[in-house]
Amino acid sequence: MQITFPYSEFKSLEIPEKNLLGIFSPSIVRVEKSEEQIIEEALSHPIGSLPLSRLLKGQEKVLIVVDDYTRSTPVQKILPCLIEVLKGAGVRKDRIRILVALGTHRPMTQEEMVNKFGEDLVRQYSISNHAWWDFSQLIHLGETEKGTPILVNRIVQEVDFIIGVGQIVPHRVSGFSGGGNIIQPGICGEETTGKTHWLGAQFTGREILGKIQNPVKDEIEEVALKAGLKWIVNTIQDGSGRTVDAVAGDPILAYRKGAERSIQVCQAEIPQDADIVIADSHPYDSELWLASKGIYASELAVKQDGVVILVSPCPEGISPSHPEVLEFGYQTFAEADRLLREGKSLKLTAAAHLVHVGRVIKERAKGIMVTTGISKEETERLGLRYAKNPQEALEIALSLTGREAKIAVLQRGGEILPQITSTLKG
Question: What sign for the dihedral angle of Cα 396, 402, 403, 406?
Answer without folding.
Answer: negative
